[in-house]
Specification:
The chain has four helices and two strands; from the N terminus they run H-H-H-H-E-E. The protein is mainly alpha-helical. A two-stranded antiparallel ribbon has the order 1-2. The model has no long low-confidence stretch (mean pLDDT about 85).
Length: about 110
């Protein structure tokens, strides 16, 4: 077994678990629109190498990878619909909070609630 393949197996075995940590850390670090982008894109980018190198990582019966990868897939099957529902609920709440602005005949801006 080559050294690159051994490192790939070691890194790929724990990358699905690191995916949760990286996603949570980026979600904590960013705010606003960047947070939502990070929460949406980070799991895909961290799980993509696991999916692309699935045969090399799962070589020789690496069952720990199978368990961590399967667990991550099951968690993300629940994660993305919940993320979508929370995003829709927060955008509806923010639209209700934000006052509408209207311009009167004399050119002054008035708030409409």
């Amino acid at each position: 077994m080559s050294d690159i393949k051994a490192v790939l197996i070691l890194f790929g075995t724990f990358l699905p678990l690191l995916s949760f940590v990286i996603t949570a850390a980026l979600g904590y670090k960013f705010e606003g629109q960047r947070r939502w982008i990070a929460l949406l894109v980070t799991p895909v980018l961290t799980m993509l190498p696991c999916y692309l190198f699935l045969d090399a990582i799962a070589a020789n019966g690496n069952l720990l990878f199978a368990v961590t990868f399967g667990f991550a897939v099951l968690v993300y099957i629940i994660y993305y619909p919940v993320l979508l529902i929370v995003r829709i609920a927060l955008s509806i709440r923010d639209k209700r909070k934000r006052p509408l602005r209207a311009v009167s005949n004399d050119g002054l801006t008035k708030r409409i609630y």
